[in-house]
Amino acid sequence: MKSMTVIPPSDNRIAQLIDANLDRAREGLRVIEDWCRFGLKKKDYAKDLKDWRQTLGTYHHEFYKNARTTFQDPCIGISHPAQSTRITPEQIVSANASRVQEALRVIEEYTRNTDKLLSSEASSIRYKIYDLELQIIKESKWNERKKILEECTVYLITNSNQSIAEIIHEILSAGVRVVQYRGKHKNDLESIKEANLLSAICKKFNALFIINDRVDIALATNADGVHLGQNDMPITEARKILGPHKIIGKSTHSKKQIEAAVKEGCDYIGIGPIFNSNTKPELIPIGISSIKEAIKSSPLPTFAIGGINTSNINQIKNTGCKRIALSEAIMNHPQPISVTKKLINLLK
């Protein structure tokens, strides 16, 4: 196949545009490659991108390069306002993926009869970029989710408070980064409607939105993840449904359960109840001493839960734990913003 005849374009303008688009495609690939290499630490993605870039280089024949007349290009220096709006790595990756796709399409069309190998390769890489772009965006969002989870100190669990949307808005403005929706006393239609509302609020504050127990509702509302109890769906099954880029948390009550959850592949641990809890009064508190053991047993972000409030939070902090999950202490407080800020400051 490599020996297939390549016919230099009879029209020098065609050679110029092929040269320009080969440069454009390879430049775009390099921008994406470097984010995969340095930002995502994804060797396999970076390797594919490098291979495609090098492959296009082998087809960048001298007669294309010799047609280059950059100084005569009337469009040099022309920019677009959209370029200044690309702030996040994901926006830059998407813009350059589009740049590569467009350049390869031009190459494919103009070399179809004169440089069939290049035309075929351009088509092949173009379709691969469509898929890889989505994978990169998902991976970037996954890294962002993990970072938010890692940095979170106060994790809020909702209750049936009638002013739930207003309270969530207030506590997010106060600094909470993770909200778990618990719609225990609502039907599925009500839960999905309310979850979508709260999810939109969380997105405004770049906070994570987690669904309690219900993998199906997490999937239906495109939540950031799900939190599972000991009697809920196994983590391995939830992962099959939600995919590799969603957060899965697990409630645990002992060192043995923590080790099992970590082995199953969850992303964070809830350990408790530490104190008596009105949310789950049937559970016997495991006590403060269990937190130290939990932290040692878990390589994952671990949140103490159960009856925690401003009067006992120092007992939690003194164990070395700086992550808590709570509900009533914020949701039922007359001043949710002030108590949230106080809890966050007490954990510093």
Describe the structure using short key phrases.
eight-stranded parallel beta barrel, Ferritin, alpha/beta, single chain, TIM Barrel, 14 helices, 348 residues, 2 domains
Task: Write up what this structure looks like.
The protein has 348 residues and is of the alpha/beta class. The chain folds into 2 domains: 12-144, Ferritin (Up-down Bundle), CATH 1.20.1260; 152-346, TIM Barrel. The protein is built from 14 helices and 8 strands. The protein is elongated and about 85 Å long.
Short recap of the structure:
The chain is 53% helix and 10% strand. With 348 residues, the protein is α/β, with parallel strands linked by helices. It is elongated, with a radius of gyration of 27 Å.
